[in-house]
Amino acid sequence: MTEKNQEKIDILSLSQAELEDEILLLGEKKFRAKQIWQWLHVKKVRNFDKMSNLSAQFRGKLSDIFCIKSLIISKRLASNIDNTVKYLYELPDGNHIETVLMEYNHGYSLCVSTQVGCKMGCRFCASTIAGFKRNLEPSEILLQLYETERDSGIKVSSIVLMGIGEPLDNFDNVTKFLDILSDKDGSNMSLRHVSLSTCGIVPRIYDLADKSYGLTLSVSLHATTDAKRSEIMPINNKYNINELISACKYYLHKTGRRISFEYALIDGVNDSKEQAKELSRLFKGMQSHINIIPVNKIKEREFTSNRKSAIRFRDLLIDLGVNATVRRTLGSDIDAACGQLRREYEI
Ligand code: SAH
After folding, report:
1. 261 and 181 in one domain?
2. Does ligand 1 lie within 6 Å of residue 298's CB atom?
């Protein structure tokens, strides 16, 4: 982004109501805001000059005050095994993030990043190794969708906030993104088609529940005791398993939406029969679903697993009456697990 642009208002990060306020401040009529909104979020133009139902003078005024951000595709990796495509995007300030497009039976799903890097320090995760750089703006989360749809020609039908970063550590920008994404005059995506994954920032789970968005909450659990969870997920020192499960129950009660728990299976760390039993005790009487993921090996860590172990652990859980599945592996030939491509690129 040029220095001049940095002083301008990032128009794609405004909600429709905020854009209206800005347009009224310029002494223009309210309906102009809706016209601009549709150029930005339906026709997805990148230049004010394309907004042909506005006068040249007004367009000039807009480009003096606002900027329309964009992302650059630094790398695009297409899987030869399935239709997964992984994008490495360059942000206006030169930082990089990853976005993954995946095909499922019901359509295409997009996994988006919410931060540059991550401060959560989960031991098995590549996104956190080089630490945290900054939060993504609402526009930068949204643009991952717009640019990927533009590049691929594919209409994305669902979004998962499971890329680089901890979405609930960037709460205001992420919720603004959700508001823009679901705006009836824009992308109009039902938030029932959105999943948000968190490592467990407990107060923000309550805040999210109170928003009543209707999205699916995925909680990265990965262990059944505080001792074990704290070992691999430092956030557990701040909010322990009991506090996390209480927040999940509140979310369930408030939204009526079943929670999905992620469990990255790691050989010799969290894959024993005893741990399966503990999981079943933890979820007793709670509407939930456990998604088992054989941990993806990252080169900086020794953790390993495989699909066979995941199926064995799932069967143990099912025998104990727990609703469990093994997550499908997509894009295994292109390291589709988050954080790995960015790390290669930034080193
Ligand atoms: N910060 C959020 C979302 C990003 S990570 C969270 O923690 O949920 C998305 C999911 O991938 C999380 O469940 C995370 O624990 C998991 N994950 C990270 N690294 C992984 C790896 N190497 N193997 C398997 N799952 C991993």
Report:
1. yes
2. yes
